[in-house]
Write a structure and sequence with these properties.
By secondary structure, the chain is of the alpha/beta class. It is 45% helix and 17% strand. The chain is built from 14 helices and 13 strands. The strands form 3 sheets. The protein has a 7-stranded mixed β-sheet, with helices on both faces. Helix 8 links the parallel strand 8 and strand 9.
Length: 386
């Protein structure tokens, strides 16, 4: 009775029902793989990670059963979901932990029952394998992009002549401390190792730059609403001083940009992001967000699915690194600004121009050359080069 109640609760919290691949009639059952994702607030999990993982597992292992659950940012719920999967005979758990410390309990239970754990996106101590990106390098990409953009914008502002100044006005070419660009650092959750790694990479990129870090904030649960509230408060505290916002992901970037617009800032401060969400790409085309770091989440899910199948079959897969004793497969991220949207996002089949250039963004897309005569000419040139 207790086991049945646990199964029902887990299914209600995140959906722990089997996702058997289609076309498996008559195929011998090879085993069961469980996919545990942490939350649905970040668009990538339900739009990319989950469907790609199920699809690739189905192709690589037609005889495998896939169990899936999303914890809704609840560590206790994720533990119950993992217990449910193990009770259903999961041989491999692919775990993107809500709380990496609490997830040690999931690893311990899996090992006790002879199942293996692949830590996905977030490192979990004791896991058998780890699939992720180099998050400190992602932070370095964010910090470098922010530093370059605010410095360039600040130099352009300084170069504008003062209409009220006479020809003999003294133009000081040595900016003092008060003239340096000011930035806000809006990190992810302080309880999440990836957020801490991004913050470390950010600081490394900003070290030695002629930039003032006005304030920084670790955003609980990576919440865009909390990021908006904090940014609003900082814009009030530092009026006219915020030239850039280092947002640790695209959700936080959207919150920070909303705060800047509500404050009447035009243009909004240079704002970074991470995850390559569709809304972020549209903001980049419109000029509201400066850049994002695109992580090929479908590639990450595919890598994890293939790894899970090989582990299930008793193979010893190749990996690219070892992190804290755990064999690791690290993937490479890409920095994407407006000039990169065509060749990284559109040509890479991440999002189509139809998805990006909805009516609200058609004019911006035309200016960027994604649609219209300029886009046709660029496409023809690209085809000729190929």
């Amino acid at each position: 009775m207790a086991a049945l109640a646990g199964l029902a609760l887990a299914a209600g919290l995140g959906g722990c029902a089997p996702s058997d691949p289609a076309g498996t009639a008559g195929v011998p059952h090879e085993g069961t793989i469980g996919l545990l994702l942490p939350e649905a607030q970040t668009a990538r999990y339900e739009a990319s990670d989950h469907p790609t993982f199920v699809s690739v597992t189905g192709r690589r292992c037609p005889g495998c059963t896939v169990l899936y659950a999303n914890a809704g940012q609840d560590a206790a719920a994720q533990l119950q979901q993992a217990e449910s999967m193990l009770a259903q005979g999961a041989d491999v758990l692919v775990l993107d932990a809500v709380d990496t410390v609490a997830a040690a309990g999931i690893v311990a239970q899996a090992k006790r029952l002879g199942a293996q754990v692949i830590a996905y996106d977030r490192f979990v101590d004791g896991a058998d394998y780890y699939v992720s990106y180099d998050y400190e390098f992602i932070g370095f990409l964010l910090g470098s992009a922010l530093a370059g953009a605010v410095t360039e914008r600040d130099a352009g502002t300084e170069a504008e002549p003062d209409a009220d100044a006479g020809p003999d006005a003294d133009h000081d070419t040595e900016p003092d401390a008060e003239d340096r660009p000011g930035v806000l650092l809006v990190h992810g959750s302080a309880t999440e190792p990836n957020a801490l790694a991004i913050a470390a990479g950010t600081r490394r990129a900003l070290e030695g730059e002629d930039i003032d870090v006005l304030a920084e904030y670790y955003t609980p649960d990576w919440s865009p609403d909390k990021a908006t509230e904090w940014t609003e408060a900082m814009l009030t505290r530092f009026p006219g001083q915020v030239d850039g916002v280092l947002a640790a992901n695209d959700g936080i970037a959207g919150g920070a940009i909303a705060a800047a617009k509500a404050a009447g800032l035009d243009p909004v401060p240079v704002t970074t992001g991470q995850d390559g969400e569709l809304a972020a790409v549209q903001r980049i085309i419109a000029g509201d967000q400066y850049m994002t770091v695109y992580k090929a989440t479908d590639q990450q899910a595919q890598t994890a699915a293939e790894l899970a199948v090989r582990v299930l079959r008793g193979e010893e897969p190749r990996t690219t690194a070892v992190i804290q004793g755990v064999p690791t497969q690290l993937l490479a991220p890409r920095a994407v600004a407006a000039a990169d949207v065509q060749h990284v996002i559109v040509d890479g089949h991440v999002y189509s121009t139809d998805e990006i250039c909805v009516p609200a963004y058609r004019d911006a897309c035309e200016r960027a050359g994604l649609i219209g005569p300029d886009a046709d000419a660029a496409a023809a040139l690209g085809e000729a080069v190929r």
